[in-house]
Amino acid sequence: MSRELFKFKGGIHPPGHKAESTGRLVHPAPLPKKLVIPLRQHIGNPARPVVNVGERVLKGQLIAAADGAISAAVHASSSGIVSAIGPACVPHISGLPDECITIETDGRDEWIAHGPLDYQALAPADLLARLRDMGLAGLGGAVFPSAVKLDPGAALVCPTLIINGGECEPWITCDDMLMRTQADAILQGVAIMRHLLGSSEILIGIEDNKPEAIAAMQAAAAKLDFAVETVSLPTRYPGGGAKQMIETLTGKQVPSGKLSTDIGIQVFNVGTAHALARAVHHGEPLISRLVTVTGHVLRAQNVEVLIGTPFDTLIQLAGDRDGTTGVLMGGPMMGLPIPDTSVPVVKATNCILVKSAELFPPPPKALPCIRCTRCADACPAELQPQELFRFAKSDDFGRAQEYHLFDCIECGCCSYVCPSHIPLVDFYRYAKSEIWARERDKRAADLARERHEFRLFRQEREKTEKAEKLAAKAQAKRAELAAAPTDASSSGASEADAKKALIAAALARAQAKKAETTPQNTDNLSPDTQHEIAEIEARRAKIREQARKPLESEETP
Amino acid sequence: MLTAILVMVGIAVVIGLVLGWSAIRFKVEGNPLAEKIDAILPQTQCGQCGFPGCRPYAEAIAKGEADINQCPPGGEEGVKKLADLLGVEPKSLDETHGTPKPKSVAFIDEQTCIGCTLCIQACPVDAIAGAAKQMHTIIAAECTGCELCLPPCPVDCISMVPIAEDLPHWKWKHPVIEIKPVELKRVA
After folding, report:
1. Secondary structure letter of residue A309 according to DSSP
2. What are the residues whose beta carbons fall under 8 Å from the beta carbon of B175, sequence distance 6 or more?
3. Is pLDDT at B182 greater than 70 in this prediction?
4. In this structure, which long-range contacts are made by residues A380-385, counting pairs with CB atoms below 8 Å and at least 24 apart in sequence?
């Protein structure tokens, strides 16, 4: 009996190029001499370093702790010495450096003490905290901290759990190979997810261009004591997108601006399920992942790579060739060009795609938009890409948001079908980042306004406080004088007398104070110094005397 | 005739009472237009517009006493937003009030600082920490880059540092479609 499937709107059928990298066995990549592990590998706050430069760390040791609610920890991928903590190049299109921990490996690959967790005995909150400290984050590409997603929150249960084995993007095969080789481990992870989310319906969606993976998952699911349905989906890009997969499997659409959990569905990548099983059943934090190295290389393959391994060692492992025109992290549709290939593999690195002029010819010159709306037909998010393009190009971000710019998943279908070869997605990314920047500026302005207003309030308050203090002091003084039975202040004492008395008292006080302050350095002097001072004083007196004499002589005549 | 007059008077009294009551009940505090203008202004509090802060400038615009193009930190975009709000034609920035500069934060050279507190008194957002005869330092996250701390410093130890682009603040650039120069064919 096969499940009724639904069809999401749009989508495209780009050439798959999957066979290139599925022919070789998955094997671990060699241990590099240096591991560069970024602290910001996930969505949310970057992890906070908990080791120092020069410290020896073991494989699997926590080197940076999760910071805040949405964050994930970072671990040493191998044993060695921490040689640097600071900015280093990370896989990002800008080529800008970011905070990283560099480890010089010692080659021993020595594990820290670790063991399985009895997840059923632990309270859910404790288990989630442990998973957060295990550094788990979504391996499908978004790298959202998994512990947050595994918390069903106020709803207490998430009825439907979808395991995403879609892998719709061309060239990438790491999820395919993982399902073929680690089906049992993936399902162990699914069992833990089911335990935490309380899901009653579990679906595994796999595109039908991966028959071996479907067979492996079905065989493994048959051994389980709970129902897991492996569903073969028609191959259509971007069928592996979370929202598209939800629609294909359930017919439900995630409303704009909402999360899938709002309609009772949670989606995890197969790689995340596998990493979860490793973390719980073996106590191994997320320190490695499968990476597809493909494209313009001699031996396209999938390798199990330690987080922090440089891209170029993997490209060399797969056999680099002449005529390379660039490297993408990810697939050809959504992947990001990486300007420097010495950057490390991070949790988000599912594929290293080496480009050449034959495989990826440079795009033809972009022509003006002719408003053919082919992009609108292809858009799986049911947007109007031609309108979004118009608004983004003219910096009309308000209108772009009205046209639901933030529902765009940047899948690249619109750019793929555009007969004018306009890089549409680049415009949407530009508009999104400009809107975020403006929101940041707005928050900064609100903070500045608040602080400025508080300053004005503070200045005003200080002024009144000072005036009040002075008034109170004067009042007290007056009361004191009135109470004191001075002879002058008989019943008819005038205000002026009181004031005079006040001034006289103040003068007396000042004089007493003056008399009190004597130079401190004239006490406890030796007789010699005292003698010296007396001499100087005498000399001064003499000079004064002499100075007075001519003055007197001038005056006398 | 009398009935009609009484009815009209009655209606007038009722409506008058309702209007009078709602004028008190729904009285709007402050000036809503100045509020809206203030929301657009960048809150740098630099005083380049000639008013002691963004709020007084907003109130002056609302009263029609100041032009909309006197805020250099807001830039042309700010002028455009104000023009949209007020329904007037946007105009270019008034150069006499200064020109837009890249976003910067003040930086105190702590070796040179003598702890005179003059900058602390000048800072409109209390973004300088320090006390008399103690070293001062800028709280960079709170600094609006208004440059008001520069003139009072007796030892010129404050400089403005442009904010460098880092990864969390990196922005996608406006896509540029490269134009290749076409070689001119030599006219034989």
Report:
1. -
2. A423, A426, A427, A430
3. no
4. A380/A8, A380/A9, A380/A10, A380/A11, A380/A238, A380/A241, A380/A243, A380/A244, A380/A409, A380/A411, A380/A413, A381/A10, A381/A243, A381/A407, A381/A408, A381/A409, A381/A411, A382/A9, A382/A10, A383/A407, A383/A408, A385/A414, A385/A424, A385/A428
Among B157, B160, B162, residue whose Cα is nearest residue B130: B157
On the 0-12 / 13-18 / 19+ scale of CB atoms within 10 A, B18 is: exposed
> pTM value?
0.81
Enumerate the residues of chain B whose CB falls inside 8 A of the CB of residue A458. 126
8-state DSSP, A539: H
**Crossing angle for the helix pair B32-40 and B75-86, to the nearest 10 degrees:** 160
Distance CA A473, CA A480 (A): 11
Say if residues A127 and A168 touch (Cβ distance below 8 Å).
Answer: no
Q: Is B182 helix (H, G, I), strand (E, B) or coil?
A: coil
Cross-chain Cβ contact B175/A434 below 8 Å: no
Among partner residues B42, B125, B165, which is closest to A455 by beta-carbon distance? B125
Helices A174-181 + A270-282 axis angle, to 10: 50
pLDDT, position A275: 95
Quote the minimal CA–CA distance from A92 to chain B in Å: 9
Amino acid type, B6 = L
Please judge whether A445 and B169 are an interchain contact, meaning their C-beta atoms are less than 8 angstroms apart. Answer: no
Residues in chain B: 188
Which amino acid, one-letter code, is at A375? C
Q: Convert the pLDDT of each residue in A104-159 to its tens digit.
A: 999 999 999 998 989 889 888 899 999 989 999 999 888 999 999 998 877 778 89
Pick from A430, A437, A445: which is nearest to B174 by CB?
Answer: A430
Neighbours of B126 (CB within 10 A): 14
Radius of gyration of chain A (CA): 38
Q: Give residue A497's pLDDT.
A: 76
Q: Indicate the angle between helix axes A183-197 and A270-282, nearest 10 degrees.
A: 80
Q: Choosing among A452, A454, A460, which should be mutated to test the B contact, i.e. which has the most B CBs within 10 A?
A: A452
Integer angstrom CA distances of residue A476 from A482, A502, B24: 10, 12, 44
Give the 3-state DSSP-derived string for A353-413, with helices as H, strands as E and coil as C. EEEECCCCCCCCCCCCCCCCCHHHHHCCCCCCHHHHHHHHHCCCHHHHHHCCHHHCCCCCH
Using an 8 Å CB-CB cutoff, list residues of chain B that contact chain A: 38, 41-45, 53-55, 124-127, 142, 144, 165-175, 177, 180
- Enumerate residue ranges in chain A where pLDDT < 50: 1, 488-489, 491, 556-557
Q: Is the peptide bond preceding residue B100 cis, with omega within 30 degrees of 0?
A: no
CA B127, CA B120: separation in Å to the nearest integer? Answer: 8
> What residues of B are in contact with residue A97 (Cβ under 8 Å)?
167
Which parts of A68-173 fold into alpha helices (H)? 124-133, 146-149
Average pLDDT, chain A: 90
Encode pLDDT of A28-62 as tens digits: 999 999 999 999 999 999 999 999 999 999 999 99
What CA–CA distance (Å, rounded) separates A310 from A342?
A: 5
Helix or strand (DSSP H, E) at A230: strand A229-233
The pairing of strands A62-65 and A74-75 is antiparallel
Residues 6+ away with beta carbon under 8 Å from A499:
none
Strand residues in A444-527 grouped as ranges (E): none
Q: Among partner residues A90, A96, A448, which is closest to B125 by beta-carbon distance?
A: A448
> Are residues B173 and A441, on separate chains, in Cβ contact within 8 Å?
no
